Amino acid sequence: MVLDWGGEFLGQLHVEIEGPEGTVLDVGWGETRRADGCIMLYPGNPMIEAADRFILAEGRQTIDGFAVRGGRYVQLTVEAPEGVEGEVTVHAIAIRSMQTPLAETGRFSCDDPLWNWVWRTSRVTLAACMEDTYLDCPWRERGLYLGDAWVESRLQRMFDADPAITRRCLRLFAEGQMSGGQLHAVTPSWHKKPLSDFTLTWVLFLHDHWAWTGDTRLVEELWPVVGRIFASDSWRTDAHGLWDATGLTLFIDWGVINEWRSGRGNACLNAFRAEALRRASELAGAIGRGEEARQLASEAGAVRNAFQRNLFDERHGRFRASLEEPHDAKHGAIHANILALAFDLATPHQREAALAFVVRSLEDLAEYPLGRLVVPRVELFFLHYALELLYEADEAELADRLVRACYGVMHDAGAPTFWETLMRGHAGSGSLCHAWSGAAAYACITRIIGLRPAVPGRTDRYVITPVPGPLRRAECVFPHPRGEIHVSWVRDEMGVRVKMSGPPGVELVVQEKEERLTAVAAPAVRG
Predict the structure, then answer these.
(1) Residue-level pLDDT at 523
(2) What is the pLDDT of the chain when averaged over all its residues?
(3) Does domain 2-97 have CATH number 2.60.120.260?
(4) Residue 187 · residue 170 · CB < 8 Å
(5) Cβ atoms of residues 70 and 8 within 8 Å
(6) What would the pLDDT profile of 152-186 be if each residue is shown by its tens digit?
(7) CATH assignment of 107-449, given 1.50.10.10, 1.20.1250.20, 3.40.47.10, 1.10.10.10?
(8) In whole angstroms, how far apart are CA 253 and each of 261, 386, 436?
(9) Where are the domains of the chain?
(10) Does residue 497 contact residue 490 with C-beta atoms inside 8 Å?
(11) What is the model's pLDDT at position 49?
(12) Coil, strand or helix at 499
């Protein structure tokens, strides 16, 4: 018997059942089904615990599973003991949810159905990936992965003002720091090697938390972890001033070819290095460590200069994946160029050329999101960097087309939650519930509405800089610890008219970018 929950669940099994003593009850969990209707067992990893076995006692009984399981489908298989006849009756079956409740405070709507679907589906996906920590997915590992947790923290902030899970996750990674300074990619972990780009992402994660909450106490508590990361004995600096990725393991994105994950002067590794140093400098300043802040800023500048001098390919007008990338490389290193631009590592000349290369590549993805289901390609996780770059580069129209193309594939497939990748999800494999794919929902608030802290680490003043793209109207409720922030805007022939209101002590300021913006009907400060 296969039961379809209609969406992703995360919880413990509850079954009321009766049958002959010794009957074997196998309960399987999955996100996909075979052609015969049964669930697909072990489609992604043979080490996943995809089934539980129970032995029935005599008569009617209740079985409450101890392990937390996730998926969309539950399959019950019963087998009576040899030589025993009798009926097995399932009286009731349920899942006792183990999801951490996600507040309904954060809301968004606009005049476009797909963007509204993105927002709703992001919330459903995130809720399924929240237990006592963030999860990469409910069905497969159910693991606290560093890259996933950083994205999920950003998303939760759009829906819910409580940062407790974020703080817990940051601490868990810190407590599991290896003796050599690296962080486990997933914690707790039996892995022997880290993903070194995720180690640097932890610094971005901590900075992001501070920038939106002003939580300097956590920064002070975890500051020694930052120091040990940069002092890690895994980093090897070459004569060019760049880190060598030889011998390291990098993730970057599912759409990366293996050659881009290694090499002397690896561009992605050094881009993360430069950005982590820059953000660490801001964190040091926030907790009164002025000298360390200056040293970190100086080192970030040195890495930026080395990046510009050694990794830009004038002939092709883009950055190379590493110093070892051949000049006749078949594929341009799209991920390295996105990071170089998103982290502001290019000179003005380099930026112009690299942006043209990135735009061409992303236009191709927007035109054919399923046309090239092979690597290299930008996948759903890396859209967090790509969309941020496009909005900053005044390429809102392309950002909109990219969202419509990539998320439209999942929408048209009837997906109740976001997939791990387009490549695998379209084929019905991999995880079909991955909150790290929620980049577009984050953009709903921070870009389409344009709401962000005016100064990182301050929670009493926000700027509102809408980037409408093709949209004509949008509105949101943003959860703030002091109360709700309401923002809406309408675009007409006169420009963009913004209405806003916030809780006492919170200042809201409309900041012009592209179109003429006018604040109307509500004061910038209440109380």
Answers:
(1) 43
(2) 94
(3) yes
(4) no
(5) yes
(6) 999 999 999 999 999 999 999 999 999 999 999 99
(7) 1.50.10.10
(8) 10, 12, 11
(9) 2-97, 107-449, 461-520
(10) yes
(11) 78
(12) strand
